[in-house]
Specification:
Layout: E1 3-9, H1 21-28, E2 34-40, H2 46-56, E3 61-66, H3 68-78, E4 84-89, H4 95-99, H5 106-114, E5 118-126, E6 130-132, E7 135-139, H6 140-149, H7 156-166, E8 173-179, E9 182-188, E10 190-194, E11 216-221, H8 229-237, E12 247-252, E13 254-258, E14 264-267, E15 270-273, E16 278-290, H9 301-314
Parallel strand pairs: 1-2, 1-3, 3-4
Antiparallel strand pairs: 5-6, 5-16, 7-10, 7-14, 8-9, 8-13, 10-11, 11-12, 13-16, 14-15
Helix pairs in contact: 1-5, 2-3
């Protein structure tokens, strides 16, 4: 029996890859496996409503087409149902997709769905209201996410420009953390609470994080002096952020945080006004999701060779 798939498309996410998704689905989705319908979001968090309706209507798979924020909306909608999450990454950061090694090329991401390889990953709840699939953060991280929420231009360049503009003036703040019962007082520029290993853009701020280990990876980061940026930045992209002298890393099942004076939290790339006190809890293997089967290639051997040769011509 075919599985029913609802595809929820955020028409304004990321950098425009979602605009051709209807044709890509027609050309690449295995119609022997799936019957599908498409819905477009029309306002902020509309994806949650559409996903909830789809789950109630008995769709087996609810696929988010967009960035981490769009994925988060769908997760909130299918929570507690039997629906499985699918991802076609079309955002700018795409942290969860990168962590799961889902290709950023939409046609190849659709072929991941064709592998029909469901599995489970953890999720994190925040204040029993918000869901975190990839990463949450307070401090400078949340401040930038708040600014990005109202930015007219998305993408890495806009994100980097905001960081460079706001870096000099944003100071570290005092936080009180209770990490699985142990108390910590820390002055931090930002603190991340990670399920996946990265913000997106392959920036691995929690390089040891695993999606199914039942733990939250906490990165407490003090403000990095300009003169140390040339050393610290490569560590982020080499999956060794823990080697920086400005970083302290912890793991926990449950975390309480007091002192979030800005009240804002970065939740999967989107800024949300959550409040001064925060409560994070990991829920192990609580989300059903379509995973990539790395044992089977997404392209034929001939196509792989052609793509490799093409890449060599571009980057000899």
């Amino acid at each position: 029996m075919k599985k029913r798939m609802l595809v929820i498309i955020n028409p304004i996410s990321g950098v425009g890859r979602q605009k051709k998704i209807e044709q890509l689905l027609e050309n690449n989705l295995d119609r022997d496996l799936f019957d599908y319908q498409i819905r477009y979001t029309e306002y902020i968090h509309h994806g949650t409503t559409l996903a909830r309706e789809g789950a109630m209507q008995g769709f087996d798979i609810i696929t988010a087409v967009g960035g981490d924020g769009s994925v988060n909306d769908v997760i909130a909608g299918i929570h507690g149902s039997d629906a499985t999450l699918g991802i076609i990454p079309c955002g700018s950061g795409n942290g969860l997709a990168r962590c799961m090694r889902i290709p950023l090329t939409p046609a190849l991401a659709i072929r991941v769905l064709n592998q029909d390889n469901p599995g489970t990953i953890d999720t994190i709840t925040l204040n029993d209201k918000f869901f975190v699939a990839s990463i949450a953060g307070v401090g400078f991280d949340a401040f930038i996410a708040r600014l990005m929420k109202s930015a007219k231009v998305r993408g890495f360049s806009a994100y980097l420009n905001l960081i460079l503009r706001e870096y000099p003036s944003y100071e570290s703040k005092d936080y009180h953390l209770v990490v699985d019962g142990r108390e910590y007082d820390r002055k931090a520029w930002f603190i991340t609470f990670a399920n996946s290993n990265q913000f997106g853009y392959n920036a691995a701020v929690a390089p040891k994080a695993k999606l199914d280990d039942g733990l939250i990876d906490i990165s407490i980061v003090d403000k990095i002096p300009i003169e140390h940026a040339a050393i610290t930045t490569p560590l982020v992209y080499a999956n060794h952020f823990e080697l920086s002298q400005h970083v302290e890393m912890l793991k926990a099942h449950e975390v309480w945080v007091a002192g979030n004076v800005d009240k804002w939290v970065n939740i999967d790339g989107e800024g949300e006004n959550v409040g001064n006190e925060l409560h994070f809890v990991n829920h192990q293997q609580s989300l059903k999701i379509m995973k990539r089967d790395l044992k089977h290639p997404l392209l034929s051997k001939e196509a792989t060779v052609a793509l490799t040769n093409f890449q060599k011509k571009i980057h000899p």
